[in-house]
């Protein structure tokens, strides 16, 4: 249950087994825009994505997304292209072909 009212610049949602939380990052800007973040939490992992870049107005061109993936439990349960690129799984011929093309 909701125990406190979230601030006007944040939002949370539960969908199935996933929790989503969206918020501005206090006191941090990307150029002139405020930085924002999203946290997606599931049963096997959670992912945090944050907008970042330089702090001056001219640095808005350098804006990008940083992310952190935290796995819960056995990382060998992961499958697909991203776990192969991150070194959690051996690289398949399909992933190697994608990198070459």
How does this structure look, described?
The protein is mostly beta strands and 101 residues long. The protein is 13% helix and 44% strand. The chain has helices at 81-85, 93-100; strands spanning 10-15, 18-30, 33-41, 45-52, 64-71. The protein has a five-stranded antiparallel beta sheet, with no helix packed on it. It starts with 9 loop residues before the first strand and ends with a helix.
Question: What's the quick description here?
Answer:
This protein has 101 residues and is mainly beta. Helix content is 13%, strand content 44%.
Q: Helix- and strand-based class? A: mainly beta
DSSP E strands, number = 5
Chain-averaged pLDDT: 81
Number of helices: 2
What is the 3D form?
A: flat
Distance separating the two termini: 49 Å
Strand content: 35-45%
The ordered string of helix (H) and strand (E) elements is: EEEEEHH
Task: Work out the helicity level.
Answer: 10-25%
**Rg, Cα atoms, Å:** 17 Å
């Amino acid at each position: 249950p909701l125990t406190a009212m979230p601030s006007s610049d944040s939002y949370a949602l539960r969908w199935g087994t996933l929790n989503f939380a969206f918020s501005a990052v206090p006191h941090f800007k990307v150029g002139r825009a405020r930085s924002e973040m999203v946290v997606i939490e599931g049963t096997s992992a959670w992912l945090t994505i944050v907008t970042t870049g330089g702090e001056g107005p001219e640095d808005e061109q350098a804006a990008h997304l940083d992310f952190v993936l935290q796995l819960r439990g056995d990382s060998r349960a992961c499958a697909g292209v991203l776990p192969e690129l991150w070194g959690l799984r051996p690289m398949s011929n399909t992933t190697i072909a994608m990198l070459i093309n």
